[in-house]
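User: two proteins, same treatment. go.

Assistant:
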Amino acid sequence: MAHDSNLTRLLVRWGEGDAEAFRSLVPLVYDELKRLAAHYLRNERGGHTLQPTALVHEAYLRLSGLREMRLNNRAHFYGAAAGVMRRVLVENGYAIRKLNQAYFAFHGSYAVGSSATDPIGGKLRLLRKQAGSLAEFLHTVAQFSEPDDLDAALRQ
């Protein structure tokens, strides 16, 4: 119970703008935050590169930058921290999805090896040879919005 009342006092001081109170708060909640992070990461897709410690540290950085944060008690704090961790995971997943989309757009497939089919790689190489310069090629490709645009550019 003393732990909860100390935690509540620190939360109130932090809400009043005392940054030192937040730094004092972290050692009291770190282990629980790490357990919470591990729980969230277990529910993520396999092969996730983020570790619980990194997720806690990212949440710490985001929480420490907040101003006018009014948290009434331990449960309110953990709820806010959980929300920050979920946002970090969503943002991280979004960035990975964008990287995958860029890889697929450039390479045409995820397949590797001699038996892999590359549906657009050969066409892109041909278009690059036809282009007068790299700038012209990039300008042309930037206009594409669907695969048929590549075929139309090759016919010109």
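Protein 2:
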Amino acid sequence: MPYTEERDIQKDVTLNRFRLEKCSEEQPAIFHYWAEKEAEIKAARDKADNRLNLIKAEVELEIRNNAGEKYGKLTEAKVAALVETNPEVIKAKEELAELKEQANLLSAAVRAMEHRKDQIENLTKLWISSYYARPEVTAEDTFSNEVRGNLNKK
């Protein structure tokens, strides 16, 4: 599947037990897509975290440098409160929270792809053990059918 198209996690985790060969062939590419998306969003999250720390430091420096002019006597608690209520800091925190949420969702998608792989293996084992095969008639089944047939004749 091309990387340029958006994928749907619900479709990607769905298996067709009658097309296990197709599911097995697609699995590495599908897993890679979601793992790559997870890595990208985690990198963006880390950059946003660094940006938030930089903004906080710049705001704190601005507050401390202009303490007497704008804010009067400063305490550590007042500085922390002024930093946390700064609009730039609030916006950066919101962006970081959004990226953390996306990273968590993509981590869940990657785990779902791991479960998909495990399920392909389980379904393959079931197929190999003839779980989905047609019933075979054994000597015991033949005897049971004869008894039923005799009872039905009466």
